UniProtKB/TrEMBL annotation:
Gene3D superfamilies the UniProt entry points to: Isochorismatase-like (3.40.50.850)
Keyword list, A-Z: Hydrolase, Plasmid
PANTHER family, A to Z: ISOCHORISMATASE-LIKE DOMAIN-CONTAINING PROTEIN, PEROXYUREIDOACRYLATE/UREIDOACRYLATE AMIDOHYDROLASE-RELATED
InterPro entries, alphabetized: Isochorismatase-like_dom, Isochorismatase-like_hydrls, Isochorismatase-like_sf
The name this protein goes by in its record: Cysteine hydrolase
Molecular function GO labels: hydrolase activity
Amino acid sequence: MTDHATNEAGARSALILIEYQNDWLAPTGGINCQFQDREQIDTAIANSKKVLEDARRRNIEIIHVRMVLEPNYRVLGEGKYGLRKMVRDYGSFLGEQTDFFPGFEPRDGEYVISERTGGSSAFAATTLDSYLRNNRIFDIYVMGFALRQCVESTVRNAHDLGYHTNVIYDASAAFTREQQTSFLSDIAPFYANAITTQAFMAQA
């Protein structure tokens, strides 16, 4: 079986970690309390550590995507509804909340994207697409938070840009079990391969 670090065409693959930050994962995080399915978030964190360790062992490209905003939230505009309003209401992505959650800090040589401008997709107004293409990376594995927001937006965007996209769904978490189920049945079949942590590690 082909190692994902280099596929048969000589192209490389990458693991993209979306928002492994205190805001989502620390008990004191502003958004953390919104996860109603606590078992799912705990499982996602544990599985994410396994995936990251395995990807590093296999020398797969690691890309960390985080959100860092200014206190005035000027980049979000008026934000009268949706995520742009919620981010302001929760006081999200400011100060220590933007720090990487312990255990998910980038290592030397791993690419970090912090220049996002409030968009939910990791591709929106960032260098992600150009970085992947310049490094001949077309097979991508996405995991992170939250599944039905930034992960889904990134996966949809990646599909439209022509990437071979995989989402490690049990290393990601939705706010509820119903949201995860809906993602697997209604979204993933059209935009990505939905795989488990075990499946990712078995393909080494």
